[in-house]
Design goal:
single chain; alpha+beta; 31% strand; 196 residues; five-stranded antiparallel sheet; 13 strands; elongated
Length: 196
């Protein structure tokens, strides 16, 4: 099957990327073949230029031989690679640092049992956390990635602040309770628990 790869008209990794589509051939090699603005599906009907162009998440597709067959513009930005440079290439050749990680384990599980997986992954080279959702399809898997580094650090800071507040709370002799903004109990000290 052929697959179209969208290119955005934005700057990716400091390089200006033009607008257009590149179609992967039967072997998955992009080959730079211009596909035009609309391509035909297997039934010969006009199909959307890029079904994931409006999706904010990075989306890519990998076949059962681990080759990229589709990369949307958001994925090209997140991966800091041009889509046409990825399509047709083996994922581990492009990103050797993911071999042996949770990504490989979860993707292999998706391909083996066909069940969707949601997981987080820390990418050490970039020092960032990503949320990944992977879904099986007949030819491989489709992955949706979202950068959750800011949310992850915010949650860690909140947990650290609550731990510090908990330590202070435990040091207080009178029974004390901490309520959240809605008036629900969020934390109590031992004196509160003992006096029930």
């Amino acid at each position: 099957p052929r697959c179209c790869v969208a290119r955005s008209a934005q700057s990716v990794g400091g390089r200006r990327v033009g607008r257009g589509l590149y179609r992967a051939g039967p072997t998955g090699a992009a080959g730079g073949e211009r596909a035009g603005r609309v391509h035909r599906d297997q039934g010969g009907h006009a199909a959307s230029v890029d079904p994931f162009s409006a999706v904010a998440d990075a989306v890519y597709r990998i076949d059962r031989r681990w080759r990229f067959t589709y990369v949307n513009a958001a994925a090209a930005r997140l991966l800091d690679r041009r889509a046409e440079d990825l399509v047709g290439q083996e994922a581990f050749a492009c990103f050797p640092e993911i071999a042996g990680t949770v990504i490989e384990d979860e993707y292999r599980a998706v391909l083996a049992d066909g069940r969707a997986r949601d997981f987080e992954y820390y990418h050490a080279p970039l020092g960032r956390w990503y949320e990944i959702r992977a879904f099986a399809d007949p030819g491989g898997l489709t992955a949706f990635l979202r950068d959750v580094d800011v949310q992850r650090h915010t949650a860690q800071q909140r947990a650290a602040a609550l731990a510090q507040l908990g330590a202070v709370l435990e040091a207080l002799p009178p029974a004390t309770v901490v309520l959240d903004g809605a008036g629900r109990i969020e934390m109590v000290n031992r004196a509160w628990t003992a006096n029930g």
